[in-house]
Amino acid sequence: MLTFYINPSHKAKRNFAVLFVNAKTRAERLDTCQGCEHYVTTTKSCGPLVTEAFTDSPLCGCYMPAKTKLKVASCPLDKWEALITSQDIETIREFLERDNADRTKQELNVLSTKFLGGQRASGCAACNRKLLKQLKDLVHNADSQA
Ligand code: SF4
What is the pLDDT of residues 107-142, one digit of tens each? Predict the structure, then answer.
């Protein structure tokens, strides 16, 4: 009897690496927040939770143990930066919104090398579609933070 082993977490691990910072960066960000005068220890948030929705406070009101994991996230007071900036996201978005015929493999290589951990486009259409999907996930992730 043949038995096939499929690692079910492989895809999840790759998406995790695309969207989230490494443990060191996350710990540095969280240390900064925990030393910040605006950090609310009881809710682990930047100011009161969801501040921004109800006041004109510049604080984001986010739950920081989660927010500090995201590559696209940044401190509203510039105490730590996003690894992928809003300008980067607009560059990716512009590329994704073009027709297939107007996108080149070279452009996909530049974006995937920079934002997808060095992954490269290839002659494999399915592999390239995965890269496009990961870039879409990044944009979606950034939009959900906006
Ligand atoms: S995100 Fe910035 S302002 Fe908010 S708690 Fe962290 S360091 Fe302070």
Answer: 999 999 888 877 888 888 888 899 999 999 889 888
Cα–ligand 1 centroid distance for 90 (angstroms): 24
39 lines ligand 1 (CB under 6 A): yes
Distance 16 CA to ligand 1 centre (A): 23
Please state the atom number of ligand 1 nearest to the C-alpha of residue 68.
Answer: 1
Q: Whose CA is nearest to atom 4 of ligand 1?
A: 46
- Separation of alpha carbons 69 and 25, rounded Å: 8
Domain edges within the chain: 22-82, 86-145
Rounded to two decimals, what is the model's pTM? Answer: 0.73
Query: In the prediction, which pLDDT does 53 show?
Result: 59
What are the structure tokens assigned to 97, written together?
A: 């919104």
Specify the residue with its C-alpha closest to ligand 1, atom 3: 77
